[in-house]
Design brief:
314 residues; two-stranded antiparallel sheet; 11 helices; 4 strands
């Protein structure tokens, strides 16, 4: 690089109004204090730091994820999405009320259904009350398969939302830090779908269910698997899980135990695949775990769908 004349005071290449006598150790361009990045020897400019980061191999956790998961970005994003969906549901209820279509935002806040729930909550199928005769409608069995996914983002009331989001905040951050962003997101969605599939298989007709509880219970079992793999104590997790299971089955008329158990089983399966995959083939086996779990859920759903009675039959 051509050096400036000796009688010319060098200025920062990014801030030309700042005099400096410090140069980047890689490209030798003059840099001011705002552009200095401490290196093993001297300082580097922002462009050389970015170039070095691209060529440097990122550090990985013991489960193959990048250390970016320690920031909890996916956990925070999931919470924001759930809260935003809840707000949209309240707005939809308020709009219906203003147009004289019934309902209201207050009902949605306290635990009632909103137009968004009518569309996205999971209903296995409809039957005529008392007769058991199958009726057509907006249910999973009638082709609204999206409810298996949309239902995991909906909540009945502010308390339901707050409890699940608190659990997501507590459980999500250590799991995301251990697994990395992509693996943690895959775990969350698969656990939610696992809960939805078991709801479809075992819940009664005409039953609308929604909530992130399946994903939450999946994170419980996943955290236990991860901690055991790391040879860390699970003594603080087991009692909380048992307590939640007792609550689940004690109020099974109001709480979807099927979603909780489905998420719990799915979380254990996925976490085991992530945690115990040999390091030499870790990524391939972890991808196979995700694909295989999706395939198992699809098969279970297809079997359940084949058992649903035809419209007009008991």
């Amino acid at each position: 690089m051509t050096q400036p004349p000796a009688n010319v005071v060098p200025v920062c290449y990014r801030h030309t109004d700042r005099e400096t006598y410090v140069r980047c150790t890689r490209c030798e361009r003059p840099i001011c204090p705002d552009c200095m990045n401490e290196a093993s020897v001297g300082f580097q400019c922002p462009e050389c730091v970015r170039a070095g980061n691209k060529t440097q191999r990122q550090a990985r956790t013991v489960f193959g994820g990048t250390q970016s998961g320690a920031a909890g970005t996916v956990t925070i994003t999931l919470i924001v999405i759930n809260v935003m969906v809840f707000i949209i549901g309240i707005i939809s209820a308020g709009r219906n009320a203003s147009e004289g279509l019934g309902g209201g935002g207050l009902g949605g806040l306290l635990g009632g259904s909103t137009p968004l729930h009518d569309w996205g909550a999971e209903v296995p199928y409809f039957t005529a009350r008392g007769s058991g005769i199958r009726l057509p409608g907006d249910s999973v069995a009638d082709g609204h398969w999206y409810q298996l996914f949309t239902s995991i983002w909906l909540h009945y009331g502010l308390l339901h939302l707050a409890m699940n989001m608190w659990a997501l905040w507590i459980l999500g951050r250590p799991l995301e830090a251990a697994l990395g962003r992509v693996r943690f997101l895959a775990l969350y969605i698969l656990c939610g779908l696992g809960g939805s599939v078991l709801v479809f298989l075992l819940a009664g007709p005409n039953t609308a269910s929604a909530g992130a509880s399946g994903a939450i219970f999946g994170m419980f079992s996943a955290l236990i698997v991860i901690l055991r793999k790391m040879k860390l104590s699970v003594a603080s997790i087991i009692p909380v899980l048992i307590f939640n299971l007792v609550i689940t089955f004690s109020f099974s008329g109001y709480i979807s135990w099927q979603a909780h158990v489905g998420g719990l089983i799915t979380g254990a399966i996925v976490a085991a695949g992530f945690a115990y995959a040999p390091s030499k083939q870790r990524t391939q086996l972890q991808v196979a775990t995700v694909v295989g779990t999706l395939a198992l859920l699809a098969i279970a759903f297809a079997v359940g769908l084949s058992q649903v009675p035809a419209v007009g039959t008991a």
